[in-house]
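Sat 14:20. Reprocessing the chain from the morning session after the first attempt stalled halfway. Input below, unchanged.
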Amino acid sequence: MASPLSEIPVVYLGLIGSAIAGLGTGLGALPILFLRRITDNAQGVMLGFGAGVMLAATAFSLIVPGIEAAEEAGQSPLFAASIVAGGILLGGLFLWLANRYFPHEHFFKGREGEGNIANLKRVWLFIAAITIHNFPEGLAVGVGFGGGNIANGTALTLGIGLQNIPEGLVVALSLLTEKYSKRDAILISLITGLAEPLGGLLGAGAVSVLQSVLPVAMGFAAGAMLFVISDEIIPESHRLGYEKAATAGVMIGFVLMMFLDVALG
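Finished this time. Tokens:
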């Protein structure tokens, strides 16, 4: 029996799935209504958890299906792997360029990017940094649905939505330390999640129009996420000195996403 979701155009599925995942950031910020802070140890675990989920999603929901899609299109295993590898490198390059030239400010790493950022309020620089971080996640969900594999897209939606919840809490708490009100912290966390449906729409639309780009698109999304994991999430999870707790979070997140991918696939 066909899934009811199979009747919905994949572009809409990509948009809806990435929007649901993006809402996890705002949902995760809600506990600040009752909490003022969390321990550094817990913060490391939560950031590590998010990195683990993204790492597993990159491997099991993007890279492996991308290679399989290329092989199903008649490519040799070697050429299929090369296509996806090229996409991974392009995705990493895209995020490197975005971080290099787009003005933004991290909570822990400070300001990055070029341009006249002195005239921009810090809040917009924070939003820009988190948007750069969230866009590849939405892109991954969109590409997952755009390939016509609803189970894969659903696994990505759930996994990225889950990792966005603790990430949203960390972002909101960081905003509180910057003297923003609880209302503003929740609102900003929610706004940053809006980058995900934008990425989802772009990814699903591109793949649905031209199915032949699916392996490259999956590699591109994977490369962009790998850049975020290595350049931002893992260093931030280690900065407070609780590397072992963060590593435990990575392993828990990785295993959970692996089970989600297998169970839904």
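The chain is about 75% helix and 0% strand.
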